[in-house]
Design a protein that fits this description.
The structure holds 3 protein chains of 3 kinds. The longest helix of chain B is centred in the N-terminal third of the chain and has 18 residues. Chain B is an alpha/beta fold. Chain B has 12 helices and 14 strands. An 8-stranded mixed β-sheet of chain B has the order 2-1-3-4-5-13-12-11, with helices on both faces. A 6-stranded mixed β-sheet of chain B has the order 7-6-8-9-10-14, with helices on both faces. Chain C is globular, with a radius of gyration of 19 Å. The two termini of chain C are 33 Å apart. Classes of the chains: A mainly alpha, B alpha/beta, C mainly alpha. Chains A and B meet through helix 2, helix 3, helix 7, helix 11 and helix 13 of A and helix 1, helix 2, helix 5 and helix 6 of B.
Chain lengths: 325, 337, 289
Amino acid sequence: MKPQQLTRIWPQHETVLLLFIIVEMSYFSLFGRRFCTVDNFTNIVRHSLEIGLLALVMTPIILTAGIDLSVGSTLGLCAVLFGKLWRDAGLEPWLAGICTVGIGGLCGGCNALLIAQMKLPPLIVTLATFSLFRGLAEAITQGVDAFTGFPASFLFLGSGQLGQLPIQAWILGAAAIGVWLLVHRTTFGRSFRAIGFAPEGALYAGLPVRRQLALAYVLAGLVAGLTSLTYTARLGTAKADAGTGYELFAITAVVLGGTRIFGGAGSVHGTLLGVTTLAVLNNGLSRLPNLMNIASELSGIVTGALLLLTLTASALPHWLKARQK
Amino acid sequence: MRSLLILLCVFSLAALSGCKPSEVASTTPVDGATNKKNTLAFMPKSKGNAYFVSCRQGADAAAKELGIELIFDGPTQPDPAKQNEIIENWITLGVDVIAVACENKDGISTALRKARSKGVKIVTYDSDANPDARDFFVNQATPEGIGYALMDEAARLCGNSGEFAIITASLTAQNMIEWQKHIEARRLAKYPDMKKVALRPCDDLKDKAQAEATILLSAYPNLKLLMNICSPAVLGAAEAVKQAGKSGQVKVIDLGLPNENKRYVKDGTTDTVILWKTVDLGYLTVQAATALAKGQLKSGATHFKGGHLGEFKIVGDNILLGEPFKFTKDNIDQFDF
Amino acid sequence: MLAVFAPNFFEPQPLLSRLASAAPKLVLACGVALVIIVRQIDISIGSLFAVCGTTAGLAAAAHWPLPMALLLSVGAGILGGSINGLLVAKLRLPSIVVTLATMVTLREGLRLKQQGVFINLPEGTQWFGLPMILGQFTLCGIAIGLLLIMAILLKHFSAGRFIYAVGSDEEAARLAGIRPRLVTFLVFVTMGALTGIAALLNLVQSPQVDPNSGRGLELEAIAAVVVGGVAVSGGRGRLWGVFLGLLLLVCTSPALTYIGVKPYWEKVIQGAVILLAVVADGLRTKKSK
């Protein structure tokens, strides 16, 4: 078969992933203990909300060929400040919540200023703010202070149900639709890809490159603020270590979802599939008899292997084509 | 268009898997099988930590004796959110009893209460949850007991006055924060001449602890004692003191496993290692948890017979393992864990 | 400034100990500098570092002769580096993703194998069997030696030019007769070998091996390289800058202890230092344009 033909019939990345999810689910349903239950699917959704939200807003950033390592730290800082606002400043939870999202936006704004305005490399800027924001959270609480005893109305955000579905499903669904529309159905969103594909070209084509870049990072900050609320509500406590390492999970999900790390190509539904794959994997592996004792380590190893595998698979036809040339 | 199709696919898939399960759940044959053999889920604060590996030895031994199924899993890094997720997964997995060492008291209690409301019995060990979130706590030593023991030992070695520094795992590790609180309280109450000059985190890494201790030794030349409250720090600090040629001059006291510390205790760098018998802790936890699941252990009991270890006292809802043990040059060779 | 606030900072023996403990970081940072100059990145080095250290530790504990154990560590590093290199150069996968994958895989694999249990090394391993002071000098010597060799290679030999060429424009480099993929592959292999060496330099400083070691080391090394003025867009940067960058970063935290700053502020200050360095660099390059 000629490589040209192969490229044509070779399934899209998203399709490969979808097939994998189906295989994965059937395997766990057959061999996993009580995998296929309503309760368990509720769990999967509830546990993937935070990573899911962060991965969703990471997608536009990576589309512009950027990266944001600071989202996990922003989450931690926001969680602590939310606790501070509610307990020490005596604000109502909803008001404190709105302020927290605003603070998240501010953190994102810091990144945006340095990256879009001063044109500094995103990897380094967010590496610095990764340390900075986490440090602030620790400094504010001296590492010791933890906030707890939130009112039931707030905890509902973490453990409640609306209709038949956990509240997380609604939030994730709404955010997914929002970001999907933004990226795939507005000129706004298309410009993200243009910037990632060819930043100079985008500039000459008259796109407001700076504003777009800034928007992507501010959005990430805002959503990290929101995520800190759902995280706090689910755990019932806010501490300076909240969300440690989440940035890597989010990036993994985005890349697994087929977004090119150099920008320019990728999709929000791909990211959703990536999040689903990882969430199902994490959950399913802990239900396989014989493997239960090593589930946590195994899920790391399988995630690594999966990343390489899917990337190789979707790069294969291009590779063959290039080779024939 | 294509993307929309895919989205549609995902949602229909989700819907499909959502409705199928109700029948599966009620008629699954696995249930019958697990009812006969109790399933116990045992969670460390983090995996890849030698302390919990030795707890697991005891847990495995007890599970074998009792003929129950033991699941051992936990986060790979100490992460409260991940602990909650694993607990919630275990609830739906249908385990009978959960034994857990809690990273974050308030955080995990949310998940544990949920488990209790579903009829799962809860035992905590190593570090407790909120009292209403568990049935029993296998108490190897209260934070107060540990804090006081460390401070008393420190004061004894320094002759009740002098500067000391603490090396901890991270600034946010909950149990270490509790210990520090009690160390400080004890210092204020009994040893006002002792002065805590520094607190340094080592990220649970031995190499970093060694570097931190080296710095402390030179930054505070009057330092008389290093107190290490996480087990990787112990070795790093002892090595740093030894390399600085200050063995004996700067005292080192630790919370750590005897096997790792033998070398330094024997050559006189480390004076005292304080710990409980970790293997017994794991063993007793599994014994108690199983008895609880079988209904042999009820709240209000005052004694509990923990397998080959004999009788243990119960105070309130705390099963007491006994006082923290002090390993010194004279007795450390008798222990192997 | 430091000398005023904290005279003890420059006490010879502790200073030597600190330098010795920074030696492995310097070796790593040199490697990362190469990788970044060739416009790639490697975040698996922290995990690979632990794997190399543990392998050598296990070998030494099994009473292999010391040189063999040391070689084994470098060998493990080269193996890990070649895997990364093959995936990046041959299959053309993005390096950040490849090394993200190898990072988790290696770390979790090691956790499965070793479960965090420390390895006791036999007598005579520490400081390569030399007296302590001599050992510490040797460590610093090896690290500085490697730095010098690589700096000279980069500047005065064609191999070094190739790296810059590939980093600044791959296509142009190819047209000029360089094989960019081979260069990239070799850079990753070098990175692996250097990781193995760094693991060794770390191993001999104490009588035990911590299988969890190296966590977060990749970020430290990257930060040092970037603060040292190496452009993440590839093709630009010098090793002496990396040396200074690392020196700045490894001095920050001890300096804070010496002046008695509470540890709660440490991460804030570290972040601020990186940020300042990048902003300064950004302004400088803007001006020079």
